Amino acid sequence: MNGNIIILGSPGSGKGTLAKLLKDKYNYINITTGDILRKQTGEIKELIDKGNLVPDNIMNQIVKEEINNKSKFILDGFPRTVKQGEFLESITEIDLVIYLEVSEETIKKRILERGKISNRKDDQDLSIINHRIEKFKKETFPLVEFYKKKDLISYINGEETIEQVFKQVENLSIYN
Ligand code: AP5
Ligand code: MG
Fold first, then answer.
1. On the chain, which terminus has fewer CB atoms closer than 10 Å, C or N?
2. Taking the CA of residue 149 as centre, how many other CA atoms within 13 Å lie in the half-sphere pointing to its CB?
3. How many of the other CB atoms lie within 10 Å of CB of 58?
4. Taking the CB of residue 30, how many other CB atoms lie within 10 A of it?
5. Ligand 1, from 10, 15, 36: best to mutate by most atoms within 8 Å of Cβ?
6. Could you tell me the distance, in angstroms and rounded to a whole number, from the CA of residue 112 to the centre of ligand 2?
7. Secondary structure class of 151 (helix, strand, coil)
8. Are strands 153-157 and 29-32 parallel, antiparallel or unpaired?
9. What distances in angstroms separate CA 141 from CA 15, 26, 56, 123, 148, one per listed residue?
């Protein structure tokens, strides 16, 4: 067991928030693909501003370089397609997949609220937020079944407060 974790969840489900709490308390290395991509310009920036996914081959290369023999890391935002999940399997081992379950209504509220203070273009406009949610349902949600079959997934109720969500996750107790 190398302690590697994936946090899976829709846009605004709390992936980044949870990843940071785990990092601060248990010294994980966080790999957040959204943050990596937001430093890019050109075509990649256009894709993420509109809420579209960056192509699998580009993402796989980025993550492979990031992981580069690391262990005890948290992946926040990757994999996002079954293709990415299959690639990940070929380069490293995962011990736990946390799936944050949150209703669409809550997600929209959270993202619009954050949009008031974030510079994220994809947070500003309800039609882009809806597009991100559609992409999640179509492209990313199949990963829940993918990891369920491998008996790696833990369902977490992401509707609760940040503290309660963290407590649920700590109860999975694989962290030391
Ligand atoms: P990414 O940055 O990963 O964005 P996302 O998945 O849309 O998710 P967010 O970061 O918006 O939300 P989150 O789940 O991290 O929640 P957070 O903790 O911030 O990706 C951006 C884009 O990059 C994608 O659309 C795509 O274009 C591209 N991309 C990234 N990875 C890719 C990949 N692998 N393949 C292809 N393309 C890729 O919380 C949200 C808000 O709610 C915050 O304000 C927070 O304070 C609040 N909050 C959190 N938890 C709670 C709680 N329990 N109660 C109340 N409020 C809460
Ligand atoms: Mg995030």
1. C
2. 6
3. 15
4. 17
5. 15
6. 14
7. coil
8. unpaired
9. 15, 28, 16, 20, 11
Q: The tokens of 11 are what?
A: 């846009």
Cβ(126) to ligand 1 under 6 A? no
Task: Spell out the per-residue pLDDT of the chain, length 176, in tens.
Answer: 568 999 999 999 999 999 999 999 999 999 999 999 999 999 999 999 999 999 999 999 999 999 998 999 999 999 999 999 999 999 999 999 999 999 999 999 999 999 999 889 999 999 999 999 999 999 999 999 999 999 999 999 999 999 999 999 999 967 65
Q: Is the distance from the beta carbon of residue 94 to the nearest atom of ligand 1 less than 6 Å?
A: no
Kindly state if the Cβ of 109 falls inside 6 Å of ligand 1: no
- Is the CB–ligand 1 distance for residue 168 below 6 Å? no
What is the DSSP-derived secondary structure letter of residue 123?
Answer: G
